[in-house]
Amino acid sequence: MVLYGREAEHAAVAGLLARAWEGRGGALLVRGVAGIGKSELLAEAARRARTAGSEVRVLRTTGTEAESVLPFAGLHLLLRPVLTEDRLAALPGPQSSALRGAFGLAEASPEDRFRIGLAVLTLLSDLAAEQPLLCLVDDFQWLDPSSAETLLFTARRLGDERVALLLAARDDLPDDGGPSPAPGVPELRLASLAPGAAAELLADRAPDLADGVRATVVERSAGHPLSLVETVRSLTPAQRAGAAPIPAELPVPARLLEGYRARIEGLGTARTALLVAAAESGGELRTVLAAARALGAGPEDLRTAERAGLVTLTDAAVAFRHPLVLAAAYQGADPAERAAAHRALAGADDAGRDPDRTAWHLAAAAAGPDEEVAARLDRAGESAWERGAFAASAAAHRRASELSPLSFDRARRLLSAAQVSVVTGRIAQADRLARQALELTEDRTLRAWLGMVRGAVEDAGGNPRTAAYLLLDHAEPLAGSDPGPVVPMLVLAARSAWAAGDGALIGRVAAVASGVRPGRPATAALSALAGLVSGVSAGGSGVNGPMAALRSFVDEIRGHNPDSHLLRLLAVDCAVLLGDDEAVLGLATAEAARCLARSTVLSLPEVLRPLGDVQVATGRAREAAATAAEAEDTACSTADAAGPAGPLPARRLTAVADRIAARVAALAGDEEKCRAALERSADEDSAAVLALLDLGLGRPERALRRFEDALRGGPVAAVVLLPATGDLVEAAVRAGVPERAAGPLAAFTAWAEAGGQPWAAAVALRCAALTGPEEAAEERYAAALDRHRAAGRPFEGARTELLYGEWLRRARRRTEARPLLRNALEAFERLGAVPWAERARGELRAVGETASAAPEARPDPLAALTPQERQVVRLAAAGTSNRDIAARLFLSPRTVEYHLYKAYPKLGVGSRRELAALAGGFEESPADLP
Fold it and tell me: Does the keyword Chaperone apply (predicted)?
C-alpha cells in the first residue's frame, strides 16, 4: 500500500528499521490527531519489516481506554505470542519471577518493578539474537502506565540490540504541544497531507471520481487522510460522478467518530457484539463470544461486522480496523448498555482466571455504591502494588473509594491511593487525594495518616517548615495514646525541621516525642537530635549524651533492620551526624537498593545524597561515579511517571549527581565546573564546598567569610558544618586570624571526642597543632597521623601530612619533611586534588626535591574506557557473568557483550582470563567521577 505525501516520515521509519537490523536499536514516537495516518505508518513499518533481507519478527499491541487501568495489560498483549514457558525459563531467575508476577503467573512483589523492565529487555534481546524484532504500539496514550513505563525503560536501552520500537500516540489538536507521553523517545509528528498528495491518494482509492469532485473533496477535507478515505466510501454514485452535490462538511476526526457510530447503529445484534469486543479490548475471541452470547449475540454478528469493514477476525482474536472504530463502538452505546457488556465480561471469567480484570469490569458495571465491588477493587489495588504497577494501584483504590457506601471507607481507600502516589513521586495527585479524604472523616488516626501524606507533599514541594508544623499539629494530640502514625510522623517532622534549619522546631519535635510511650528507639534519637543542636550551640558542652543516643539508635537499626523506611532514613541521618562513614555507607547503600527495588523514588535522593558525600570524602571515586550515574539513570526512568509531579523526583535525583560533581570539582580546583554544578543542584550545603574550593585556590579570607556567613544561619547550620571544621580552621590560620575559629573548633573537638571516629579525632588533633603552641605542634601532628591510619579519609590524611611537612620545613628539618610531602603529593594526585598537589609540589621544591623526583601516580589502565565500559570491565574482571552484569547495570546481555568487545582492544586483552589478570591495576581514579 502506498502512503502518499509521507516521504520524510517513510525515511525516518526506514532509518530506524535499518539501524535496528544492523544492531543499533532504538525507538520512535509517531504523534498526530486521530485519523492522520499513524496506524497506517505502523502498518507500513510491519510490511517493510516482512520484506527485509532477513525474516523479521513483529510484535504489536494497542492501548485502549477500557484497559488503561489494568496493570501490564498492554505489555502482556505485546509479548503474548512469544511468552512461552521456555522463554520465561531462559531468563535469569529473578527476572523470570518478576515477569511471571507482573502477568499474574506467580506471586509478585513490589520490589520487582525494575526487574520487570530488565526482564523485558532481556527477553527482547534473546529474541533479537535469533532474528530482528519490530515492536509496534498503537494508541500509546491509552496504554496502562505500568506497561508504558516498562516499555520506556526498555526503549532507552536498545542501543546494541536488533530491536526497533515504534510507538503511535494521539494528540487532541493538530498543534498539540503538550508533554510527550514517551519522554526521552524521539518524536515524529504527522501533519495533514499537502493538496497534491491528497489528490494522489484519492486517485488511487477512487479513480472513478470526477475531476471537480476530487478537487472539492481535497479542499474540504483539509488534507486529513482518514477523512478523504471515509468520504469516498460514503459518496453515492451520483456524487462520485459530479451529478449530485458534495456535502458541505466532510468528515474530520469528531465527525468520523459519529460516522462510525451511525454505521454501527445499523448493524442490529452485531452492534452488541462490537460493544462487548470494545469493552474487553484485549481481543480474546473466546471471552468476547462468551460475553456476547449472554447478551443475545453470537459469532455470526462478528462476521457481519467484519463484512462491514469494522473488524478483522482470526481463530483466536478480534481486532478493530481502526482505533476510532473501537471508540465509536464503545462510546456510541448508552451507559446501561456499556454496564451490561462489562457485567457479561465479568461473568465470562467463570474460572476466576483474572480477578483484577473482573473487578474492573464489575466496577464499570456498577450503577452506584457497592461495597462488594469496592472490596474487590481494593484487593486489585493491593495486587497491582505487589506487581509494581503503582499507577494502577492508585487508580484501583481511588475507584474503590468512589464505590464505597460509607464515608470512612471512602476516606480509607483514598488514603491508600494517596500513600501509593506519594511514595512513587506523584506529589500533586497525592495531595489532591489526601485533601479529598480529609473532608470525608473526623477519625483522628485516619486524619493523622492523611496529615502525614500532606506533610510529605509539603516537604517534597520545597516547604519543609510548613511540613514540620503540619505534621506536629497532627501528631501532638495523639502522642499520649501512641497510635501507628505518631512515630513516623515525628520522624518525618524532624527531617523536615532539619531541612528547614529550624532548631526551635527540632526542639518541639523532641518535646512531643518525649510524650510517646517509653522504649521506642526512634523517640530517643529524636530527643538526641535536639540535644546535639543545643550542645553544639553551647560550644560542645553536653554533646556526649546525645551522641551516645544517636549511636545506640544507629546500632539498633543496623542490628534489626526494621520494616519502617522512615526509621532507616533516620538511621542514615544519625550516622551522618556521628561522622560514621562505615555506617553511612552500609545503611545508605542498602536503603538505596530498597528504594530502587520498591520504586520509592521520592526518598531515593535523600539516601544517595549522603552516600555520594561519604564516597567522595573517603576517596571512593568509582563508587561516587556509580552513585551519580545511578541518580541520573533513575532520574531518566522517573521522568516517565504520569501526572504533573512526575519530574519532581527526577529533578532531585539529577541534583544528587550535580552535588557529587560539585564536590569533586572543588577538590580539583575547577571553579567553573564547581559553580555550574552547584547552581544546577541548588545545593543548600554549598558554603562548605565553595570554601574548600577557595582554600585550595589560595583564597583563605574568602573561605573564612563563607563559613562565618553560613554559621549565621543558626544552630542547625553549626551542626551541618561540623565535618568541614578542619577547612574553617585552616582558612582562619592562613588568613592570620586563628582566634576566629576558636568557637567552632571547641564544638568540633567535643563532637569528635564524643563520636569516637578516627578521622574526626585526627582532624581535631591537626587543628590543635595549627592553632596551639609551637612546642605542642609536633606531638599533635604525629598523633593525628596515627589516627589517620585507621580513618579512611585519604584527602584529610594527605592534608595532615602536607601541614606537618610544612611545619617541619619551617623548622629547617627538611629531610624529615620530604617523605611526608611526597606521600601527600602522591595522594593528592591520585585523588585529582590538583591545587593541593601543586602546593605539595611547591613544598617539595622548597625542601630541595624537584617535582620530577616525586613518585608518579601509576597509570590507570581503565582511563581510555567510557564510564559504562569501566563499570562493565570491573564487574567482568571480578568474574561476574554477562547476565549478572546486565542485571546490575540495567543493561541487556548483548549490550554488555558490546561494551566488552569495545573495551578489550583498549586494554590490550583478548579474554576474560587476561582481564582478570589485569584487574590488580584497576585503581580508584578521579577520572571516574562526573
Answer: no
Q: State yes or no: pLDDT of 96 exceeds 80.
A: yes
Handedness of CA 517, 514, 549, 563 (dihedral sign): positive
Other C-beta atoms within 10 Å of 281: how many? Answer: 25
The mean per-residue pLDDT over the stretch 394-407 comes to 96
Q: Please check whether residue 642 is in contact with residue 690, taking contact to mean a CB–CB distance below 8 angstroms.
A: no
Helix, strand and coil content of the chain, in percent to the nearest 5, comes to: 70, 5, 25
Q: Would the pLDDT of 891 be above 90?
A: no
Determine which helix (DSSP H) or strand (DSSP E) holds 57, and give its type and residue range.
strand 57-62
Dihedral, 553, 558, 564, 570 alpha carbons, nearest 10: 50
C-alpha cell at 632: 541520573
Compute the average pLDDT of residues 576-589: 95
Contact between 151 and 137 under an 8 Å Cβ cutoff? The reply is: yes
Residue 66 DSSP code: G
The confidence band for 208, taking pLDDT boundaries of 50, 70 and 90, is confident
Q: How far is CA 843 from the centre of its chain?
A: 48
pLDDT of residue 925: 47
Residues 6+ apart with CB under 8 A from 560: none
pTM of the model: 0.78
Residues recorded for the chain:
930
Q: Cβ distance 31 to 188 under 8 Å?
A: yes
519 grid coordinates? 522504649
First to last CA, the chain: 50
DSSP per position, 250-282 = ---HHHHHHHHHHHHHTTTHHHHHHHHHHHH-S
Residues 825 and 832 sit within 8 Å (Cβ to Cβ):
no
Distance separating alpha carbons of residues 207 and 209, to the nearest angstrom? 6
Instruction: Sheet containing 187-189: give its strands across.
Output: 57-62, 133-138, 163-170, 26-32, 187-189
Would you call 561 helix, strand, or coil by DSSP?
coil
CB-based burial label for 190 (10 Å; 0-12, 13-18, 19+):
buried
**Distance, CA of 541 to CA of 846 (rounded, Å):** 42
User: What angle do helix axes 742-755 and 544-560 make, rounded to 10 degrees?
Assistant: 40
Please give the backbone phi and psi of residue 318, each rounded to the nearest 5 degrees, phi first: -125, 130
% the chain with pLDDT above 90: 54
Rounded distance between C-alpha atoms, residue 435 and residue 453, angstroms:
10
User: Environment class of residue 905 by beta-carbon count within 10 Å: exposed (0-12), middle (13-18) or buried (19+)?
Assistant: exposed
Q: What is the distance between the alpha carbons of residues 187 and 743, in angstroms, rounded to a whole number?
A: 59
Radius of gyration of the chain (CA): 33
Residue 835: closest CA among 692, 736, 709: 692
Where are the alpha helices (H) located in 332-443, listed in sequence order?
335-348, 355-365, 371-386, 390-402, 407-423, 427-438
Q: Are 348 and 287 in contact (CB under 8 A)?
A: yes
Closest CA to 303 of 345, 274, 332: 274
AA identity, residue 880:
T
The DSSP 8-state label assigned to residue 162 in this structure reads: S
Instruction: Kindly state the average pLDDT of the residues 411-419.
Output: 96
| All cell numbers assigned to 725 | 571544621
Torsion of CA 315, 316, 322, 327, to 10 degrees: 130
DSSP state of 317: B
* pLDDT tens per residue across span 244-272: 777 666 555 667 778 888 889 888 899 99
pLDDT at 2: 60
In three-state secondary structure terms, 61 is: strand
Cα separation, 526 vs 368, whole angstroms: 47
Question: The C-alpha cell of 262 is what?
Answer: 451511525
Mean pLDDT of the chain: 87
Residue 804 C-alpha cell reads as 606537618
Q: Give the H or E element holding residue 691.
A: helix 686-696
* Of the candidates 475, 482, 469, 420, the residue with the CA atom closest to the CA atom of residue 447: 475
Strand partners, 29: 167, 187
